[in-house]
Amino acid sequence: MKLYNELAEWWPWMSPHTEYEEEASLYLDIIQRYHPDVKQALEFGSGGGSNAYYLKRHFAMVLSDLSREMLEVSRRLNPECEHIQGDMRNIDAGSTFDLVFIHDAITYFTATSDLLAVMQNAKKHLNKKGILFIMTDQFTETFRPETSHGGIDKDGRGFRYLEWTDDKDPEDFVTETEYLYIMKNEKGEIFRESDSSISGLFSMDTWEKLLAEAGFKTTFERIHYTTETGIYYGMIAEQLSAE
Ligand SMILES: C[S@@+](CC[C@H](N)C(=O)[O-])C[C@H]1O[C@@H](n2cnc3c(N)ncnc32)[C@H](O)[C@@H]1O
Questions:
Q1: How far is the CA of 142 from the centre of ligand 1 (A)?
Q2: Is there a single domain that holds both residue 167 and residue 236?
Q3: Residues in domain Methyltransferase (predicted)?
Q4: How crowded is the C-beta side of 87, counted as CA atoms within 13 Å?
Q5: Is 200 close to ligand 1, i.e. is its CB under 6 Å away?
Q6: What is the pLDDT of residues 126-168, one digit of tens each?
């Protein structure tokens, strides 16, 4: 997506980190219930580092992402965290952790073989009692077509977007999202861009089976955001070998 590459500098205007405070605290509650003593965490697909901005207050975090530009945005917000560039299917962070956290970035995989590769790579990065927490955007059971908009003004610049997610073919395992962006720079000049993305749509049963194949036992935890009306679940994956 253009948003994670040539338009990445606009990310803090599209999705400011202040909008992540509630979700980060809901994720932290769940993480601490399953592993009260997380000291070192690794995030795959950490993007602008917005969740990490809140989570890093509770444990040290290494942040990883495919996009060099998004890592640059995150470095400005989280200068104390180590940042590494790579694909979550095969990145090697060179260490093991108490927690691997994957937020919405995993939603972009449209093949179960890719999801399995991510889960296996997460397992390689876990200490014996370490846990994997995945917060995908959607499951077949909970998906609803959605239209949203947002963006803010800050430091003399502005960004607004319209986002439309639909499922053109209910028989396939993907959803389609179209974006329109309007940007205003410091001189007041207006630019417009469009963007699009494809996301995977898999059942909770499929996720659970893939996680089992990668060596995890899964618990689905319902997440109640005050700002969202949809139904969301996080997946806590505990290593079978740690039992
Ligand atoms: C919506 S952003 C993540 C925002 C993040 N949850 C936060 O708290 O700021 C999605 C990110 O996924 C990253 N991404 C997409 N595919 C990836 C892959 N295969 N491996 C690693 N990162 C990936 C993109 O570069 C992008 O930065």
A1: 22
A2: no
A3: 42-130
A4: 7
A5: no
A6: 999 999 999 999 999 999 999 999 999 999 999 999 999 999 9
